[in-house]
Amino acid sequence: MMKSLKKCIAGVETPDSGRIVLDGRVLFDSKEKINLSPQKRGTGYLFQHYALFPNMTIEENIAAGIQLPHREKGRIVKDKIKAFYLEGLEKRYPSQISGGQQQRVALARILASQPNILMLDEPLSALDSYLRWQTEQKISSVLEKYEGTTLFVFHSRDEVYRICNKIAVMSDGRLETVSEKWDLFNHSRSLAAALLTGCKKSRKEIVLSAVYRCV
To answer: Binning pLDDT at 50, 70 and 90, where does residue 1 land?
Structure first.
């Protein structure tokens, strides 16, 4: 079974072998038998379907991952509610707000926990065209202020071109190339990269998986 790169980094899945190092800190090492729990890794993972707690209000969802005293936690929650335009929704439950609002809550919850790496798994895929554009602008604005590493997973070359500067291409679970955006789109050095950036498929159907790393 192929493991998910994002889930392995987050500690949700365990790699068969190898090492995972984030900013010089070892999260996983099969030889040294190191495997930090998800709670100790400092990762923020935005799932495609947001994974909000249905029995918690919006403000309770945002506060869920903050490990600080009550007063400091309340200040951060208020700050994120304002930053993500969620005023007036604090006491509602996830089922009582729209998909776009749910996504903003999920992103606010992740950033409130101050992760060392932010991982987004196709964060725009469940939204209609208008909300996709609106949310894309918000994500871009948030990332300009975020000081950690961001790992995007996208399959839309248009979205990744607008949001990311450095792109990594994966094919069949292997990392094929990492390059600046302009260089990848103008001088693709692998078949997977060429197909991803717009080259038409050959007679043999090829299934690609692409990971975009933004810095």
So the answer is: very low
* C-alpha to C-alpha distance for 77 and 97, rounded to whole angstroms: 18
Q: Which helix (H) or strand (E) holds 212?
A: strand 209-214
64, with CB counted inside 10 A (0-12, 13-18, 19+), is: middle
Predicted local confidence at residue 99, as pLDDT:
82
Q: Are β-strands 43-46 and 117-121 bridged in parallel, bridged antiparallel, or unpaired?
A: parallel
What the block records as the tokens of 116 is 């060392």
**C-alpha distance from residue 64 to each of 28, 33, 37, 143 (Å):** 25, 30, 17, 22
Rounded Cα–Cα distance for residues 7 and 110 (Å): 15
Distance from C-alpha of 101 to C-alpha of 153, rounded to nearest angstrom? 21
